[in-house]
Amino acid sequence: MIAAERILQTGGRATRSRTAGQRAVAARASLANCQLCAHHCGVNRLAGERGLCHAGSAARLFSSQVEVADELELVPTYAVALSGCDLRCEFCITGAQSWNPSAGRSFNPQETAAHATRALARGARTIMILGGEPTIHLPEVLEFVAALPDSAILVWKTNAHGSAAARELLEGMFDVWVADYKFGNDTCAHRLAKVSNYLQVVQENLYWANHHSQLIVRHLLMPGHLDCCWRPIAGWLARELPGVKVSLRSGFWPGWQSGRHPELSRTCTVTESGDALGIAQSFNLHLIE
Amino acid sequence: MSSQKKPDRPVEGTGPQIEDGPRKVSKRRNEHRNRRRHSPHIDGHPEGESHTQLLLLPDGRLFVHNLTPAMAQLLQKLDPGDRFLQQRTLPAPAALSSATHS
Predict the structure, then answer these.
(1) What is the C-alpha separation between B84 and B40, in angstroms, rounded?
(2) Among A130, A249, A270, whose Cβ lies nearest the Cβ of B2?
(3) Tell me: the pLDDT tens digits for A54-110?
(4) Cβ separation of A63 and B45 shorter than 8 Å?
(5) Helices and strands counted in chain B (H then E)
(6) How many domains does chain B have?
(7) Contacts of B57 in chain A (CB under 8 A)
(8) pTM assigned to the model
(9) Are A184 and A233 in contact (CB under 8 A)?
(10) Which structural domain, as residue segments, surrounds residue B61?
(11) In the CATH hierarchy, which top-level class contains the domain A16-287?
């Protein structure tokens, strides 16, 4: 069951929506020296400067619809996908939108919140915000949260590459974090996503998310990366976050620029998927579907 | 980045299993769109469409991305025994199905 851990004090003080509205103002101002992700570019996005994510001051949306393929405890979910990302994963299935923050249409938080609220009334269980990477669009994300009912169960789907400043703005806003743990070592992370110091940043975010919300760690099994990526991830989760929910996804799809890497030019084999499951079981991970 | 951020996991039981070892994937990528002419903003999509992407492998395995309730129901009819689809269609209330299936 999903139990909300959020700001919801009904004595006339802070509610999640009210707090989100206040933080949105602070988040907007922070774009003058953007430190939202762990790249810490420090650019002034309000003045038109662009950092590694290339995002400007306004978020754009490339998908918003009810979906059912996420973790069972979250679906049906109303999924809102924002364009742009701070990583450059060459196997990204939404690479065209994730690498391009100008993709899609303009994001109107209030309008989308109205659609999401309507979806809840029709039977959606949760509202999920994702990308790209939503962290780089925290001002609009918080405006979106501010326009949602306080009772809505909100899911933050992230690459777990956010900064401490971002986490401070996010505290108490989302009931569930679905956080990707993509690479089991910094070499693969740099080669496939052009990111440095990956492990330290992701692990820092996972510790925090596990403490501040419900956490689901998602790993997309990559062909040829069982021993270098999945095995060390599984071991770390077992050791550092025992009992955490783990979602092992075996449906790698050789999309976007996967062809640049020979091992990523195919799907995972049945044997690889079975072996990955065996690794999870050997570490006694709490797998969820 | 939330690369591969959506589940896009294989639908189990949709055909023979893939052979072990590297092989080329023959992609037949389809984008499914349900137009909802009468309620264009019912789920917030500007064109009044919902989107599911499918990857059908030569061995019969099917991968899905951005699976909507309507597409889950359709696929479940094609393969009623598939556990993944069974799990994803059961909790979807009728109102949601109609919301993405004009």
Answers:
(1) 29
(2) A130
(3) 999 999 999 999 999 999 999 999 999 999 999 999 999 999 999 999 999 999 999
(4) yes
(5) 3, 4
(6) 1
(7) 267
(8) 0.85
(9) yes
(10) 52-90
(11) alpha beta
